[in-house]
């Protein structure tokens, strides 16, 4: 495994990239109105990232991904491709933003609702959010990746939802997806040991129904096999001497 440790200067660049990524999500919130297409959301974010932030939208052309952001609506688990799909009242959408600034990546996603969500959409978004935070709270030097996975999984399954296994968090830095893989399930005290200066993402995907997923023929869009709802949140996190620092907090959390 090739895990990178960031120097204090590199940590500062990761802070900047993380803040920019979360700023995009802060900006896009007011645009989530009935009648907007996911392509329009992509265009607004692309313009903001490139022209206001002077940064690079990492998904664009990443392994052939055609757009600047991921938009995953309702039963789409992740990697939804922006399209002419029009959002309507009650839709739940994950918007996943990754920017590159000064050579470093910041990666974060949130759930948004168009109008009023169903009880179930609200609930799965809440459990995914709580699961992400319980995972993040495990992070400190000497803790292991299995501690993160266990914390997420036990919360999700206690609430009778399921954790997607095929996709996971990751190390992040000069490269979008670095080692190690950060699974959102696991056993306490197992797996790779965390060290000060590592940066990684925690980004659980939580399904209302079964955990199984299917990749659509476009080669990107991941959906639940049972077509029930899915939710995801993501933060980029730095391992500090005494715990963790979340690099992608939103304006209201700073
Ligand atoms: N941002 C996603 C992640 O959290 C990766 C998207 S890859 C893309 O790791 F190509 F679909 F953009
Ligand atoms: Co990520
Ligand atoms: Co992401």
Cα gyration radius (Å): 17 Å
Structural class: alpha+beta
Mean pLDDT: 98
Bound molecules: 2-amino-4-trifluoromethylsulfanyl-butyric acid, cobalt (II) ion
Count of the domains: 1
The largest sheet, given as strand count, sense and whether it forms a barrel, is: 4 strands, antiparallel
**What's the total helix number?**
4
Q: What's the CATH first level?
A: Alpha Beta
Q: pLDDT below 50 for ≥5 consecutive residues: which ranges?
A: none
Q: What is the string of helix and strand elements?
A: HHEEEEEHHEEEEEEEEEE
- Give the CATH architecture: Alpha-Beta Complex
Distance between the termini: 33 Å
Estimate the helix proportion, in percent. Answer: 25-40%
Can you count the beta strands?
A: 15
CATH topology: Creatine Amidinohydrolase
Assign an overall shape.
globular
CATH homologous superfamily caption:
Creatinase/methionine aminopeptidase superfamily
Strand content: 25-35%
Structural overview:
The structure is a single chain. The chain is of the alpha+beta class. It has one domain: Creatinase/methionine aminopeptidase superfamily (Creatine Amidinohydrolase, Alpha-Beta Complex), CATH 3.90.230. Helix content is 27%, strand content 26%. It has 4 helices and 15 strands. The chain has helices spanning 8-28, 38-52, 119-136, 145-158; strands at 56-57, 70-73, 76-78, 92-101, 104-113, 162-163, 169-171, 178-182, 199-202, 205-207, 213-215, 222-224, 230-232, 235-240, 243-246. The strands form 5 sheets. Strands 1, 2, 4 and 5 form a 4-stranded antiparallel sheet that branches. A hairpin with a 6-residue loop joins strand 11 and strand 12. Helix 1 crosses helix 2 (38-52). The longest helix has 21 residues, at 8-28. It is globular. The two termini are 33 Å apart. The mean pLDDT is 98. The structure holds 2-amino-4-trifluoromethylsulfanyl-butyric acid (MF3) and cobalt (II) ion (CO) (2 copies). Residues 107, 170, 201, 203, 234 line the site of one cobalt (II) ion.
């Amino acid at each position: 495994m090739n895990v990178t440790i960031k120097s204090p200067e590199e940590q500062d660049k990761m802070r900047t990239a993380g803040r920019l990524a979360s700023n995009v999500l802060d900006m896009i919130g007011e645009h989530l109105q009935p009648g907007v297409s996911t392509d329009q959301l992509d265009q607004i974010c692309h313009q903001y990232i490139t022209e206001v932030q002077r940064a690079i939208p990492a998904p664009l052309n990443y392994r052939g991904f055609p757009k600047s952001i991921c938009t995953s609506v309702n039963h789409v688990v992740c990697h939804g491709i922006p399209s002419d799909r029009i959002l309507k009242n009650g839709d739940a959408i994950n918007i996943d933003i990754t920017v590159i600034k000064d050579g470093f990546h910041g990666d974060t996603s949130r759930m948004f609702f168009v109008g009023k969500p169903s009880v179930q959409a609200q609930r799965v978004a809440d459990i995914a959010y709580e699961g992400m935070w319980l995972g993040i709270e495990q992070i400190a030097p000497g803790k292991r990746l299995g501690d993160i996975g266990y914390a997420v999984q036990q919360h999700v399954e206690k609430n009778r939802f399921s954790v997607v296994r095929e996709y996971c968090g990751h190390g992040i830095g000069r490269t979008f997806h670095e080692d190690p893989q950060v699974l959102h399930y696991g056993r306490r005290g197992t797996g790779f040991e965390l060290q000060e200066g590592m940066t990684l993402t925690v980004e659980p995907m939580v399904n209302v129904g079964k955990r199984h997923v299917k990749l659509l023929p476009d080669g990107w869009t991941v959906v639940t096999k049972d077509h029930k709802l899915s939710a995801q949140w993501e933060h980029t996190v730095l391992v500090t001497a005494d715990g963790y620092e979340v690099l992608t907090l939103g304006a209201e959390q700073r």
